[in-house]
Amino acid sequence: MKRFTQWIAAALLACSASMAGGAMAAPAELPLGPGDVMRVSVYGNPDLSLETRVSETGAITFPLIGQVGVGGMTVAMAEKKISGMLEVGGYLKKAQVNIIVSLLASQQVSVLGQVNRPGRYPVDGKRSVLDVLALAGGISVEGGDAVSLMRTRNGKTTRETLDVVQMVRSATLDGNVDVAGGDMIFVERAPRFYIVGEVQRSGAFRVERQMTVQQALSAGGGLTPRGSNNGLRITRKDASGQAATFEVKQSDLVQVDDVITVRESWF
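-> structure tokens emitted (267 positions)
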């Protein structure tokens, strides 16, 4: 399972390089918003060309006509609005306005937690959770199989957990939902268990799916020459947080935060 998880991370990283190589300007159908930087030009009127940033109120300042509200508009709608204001104001008989968005700051997704390149990434078109994870360099070796997606829609914020490994293994991408500006993806650290006592490498290790005590001992490098397979113990907390210690077999499954104790052989 660990190898499979690492393969997913590598695949996302390769996808990231491919997407970066094919980066493109923001599609015309995306709404403009605060922080976006655009280059505006008017055909035949170079004096009216400028590069400007959309203000927090969703407006830009344009020569001759002053404040123009473009927040929430597509590029085509903003072009039409500026053209109309130039014509209605009597500045031009027929204005041909062209807008190119050079920075789409308002449409960005935050990717945090256990990824190789955490940060904010532009949604410059249709992007899914896996697409954005690829842009962030994929899940790091410390990352878990599941990611959290937080979105705000119609004033309501929701949190959804997506099992990336299961999606890929089952080839069921229904959970690979599209993201939008303002969404946040958070990758938790992978769950851990602990080994102490007579093992080659004591410490914390990643809990793999359906991991047995025997597999956990292998993760710790196996027993020392003094270690005993008999009387293996696990200390585990119950739902109330109370810890209990009991003996286990090597075929028993390991749970998150288990502490496995390997005792010294008496012989």
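The radius of gyration is 28 Å.
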